[in-house]
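Weekly sync notes, structure subgroup
Attendees: PM, AL, DS (notes)

Item 1: joint prediction request from the bench team. They want all two components modeled as one assembly rather than separately. Inputs as received:
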Amino acid sequence: MNVVETHRLGKSYGRTWALRDCTLAIPAGHVTALVGPNGAGKTTLLNLVVGLAVPTEGEVAVLGGRAAGSPAALDGIAFVAQDTPLYRSLTADDLLHMTRNLNRHFDRSYARGRLTELGIPLRRRAAKLSGGQQAQLALTLALARHPRLLVLDEPMAMLDPLARHDFIAMVMTAVADDGVSVVFSSHVLTELERVADHLILLSGGRVQVAGEVDDLLASHRVLTGPTAEIDRYVDRLDIVHARRGAAQANLLVRTSATTDAAPPGWRAHPVGLEELALAYLREPGAAALPGPTRGDNIEPLGVTP
Amino acid sequence: MQIEKENSGTTGDGQAAAVSPIDFRLDPSSGVPTYLQLVQQVEHALRLGYLMPGDQLPKIRDVVASLAINPNTVFKAYRELETKGLAAGRPGQGTFVRATLSQVALPELTKLRRTLLGWLTTADKAGLDEDGVIALFNSVMRDFRESRATSGRGRGSGSDREGVA
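Output from the run, pasted for the record:
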C-alpha cells in the first residue's frame, strides 16, 4: 500500500506554481524525508497531502487511495505543522481535552503517560513551555490519535540538539511500536541517514530524486581521479555533479550495468546520503527517479472519494 | 570503537527490561552506514568475549529510543547478523547470540592484552606516537600474513567462526 500517491499534482498561488507536475508514490512502513531548498514546494506538498490545500491540477490520494482531505483520510493522518503551533494560552491538559473532543480516536492514557514520562507539567500553559517541550507536546497530541501516517513539516528546525534527539527518538519509537508511516520535511541534511529510509528531493516545485535510501546509495558512487581526464569520460559516465580541483576531481556518478566500472586510474568510493542530496541540490537539472519498472505503481490512481 | 559494558536500556513503560550485555553507539563522522556500525559493534563484542551465545542483543525499541534511529536500520543490522549465523530471532522475545567469534578463551585474552600493553609502553618510551604504532602494527601484520601464506602454516586466516551454539 502507498501512504501517499500523487499524479501530475500541481498547486499555483496566483501566477506562481508552488508545485508542478509532481508524480510520486510513498510506500507504507517507511520514514520518508522530503528534502529541498526553501521554496521548493515541500510545505505545499505536505499541505496537499493532509488536505489543508486543494490541488490546482492533478490528483493526490493517501492511505491506499483515499482522497486527501476526506473524512476517511483525516481519520488516519496526524499532522504537525511548521513551528508546532499550539493554543498558547491553554494548558497541556486543556489541549489534551480539546484534541480528544475534536477527534474520533484519541488515546488519553497514552498522551498523559507520555507527558508524565517527558516531565511536561499538565497544568502549565503551552506558552510557558520550552521550545523542545512544545514540540514534544504537539507530537504527543498527534501520536495519541494512533495515526497510520504521521506528517511533520520541518519538525526540528527550531530545536536544540538535545531536544532534536529526543524528538526523533519519540517519532522512531512510535514507528517501532505502532508501525506508523512517517513523512517529514527538512532542510537539515545531517542526521538524515539515521532517520530516513526513503528520500524525496524537491527542487523548484518538481520531484528531482525519489527512492529508497539503500537503492539510491547503492546506485551512486564518487569517483576520484585526474581532472584532465574528465572530458574523456563525460559520455561514458552518468555524472550528476563534478567537483574539479586543479589536478584532482571528484565526480558523483550514477552507476548502472553499463557504466559500472571506474576508469583506469580512478578510485570509486561509496557515497553518503548527505553528499548525495547536496550533489543533486547543486544540479537542479539532474534527476534520479524510479525507472519504468518501478513506476507501475504510480500510474493510475483510482481515487475513492 | 568501544563497547560500553553498562546497559542503559530502560524502556520506561514499567516492565523490567531484558538486559543486554552491550550498548550501541554511533559515530556519524565514520562514513560507515548506520546498520553496518551496529553489525560491527556486535562482531567486535563477540570477538572480545563481551557477548556469548545465549546473550540477548539490545531490544530494537531500546536501540531506537536511545540512539534516535530508524527501527528499520536496527532490523537490517539484526537480519545481517542472522544471515551471518551469529544471531537468531526468537518470536516475541528478541534477538539472541547464536555463535561466538572469539578464538581464544578470556584468561588467555587477558594475558595477550597485558603483553601488548607492555609493548606499547616500550614503544611510547621509544618516542612512537599513536599513528606510528598503528602504521608499524599494520606493516608487521602484513609481513606476518605474507610469511604465513608462503610457509603454508598458520591458522585463523580462513573462517574465524567457531562454536555455533
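Discussion: Chain A has ten helices and 14 strands.
Action: AL to compare against the crosslinking data before next sync.
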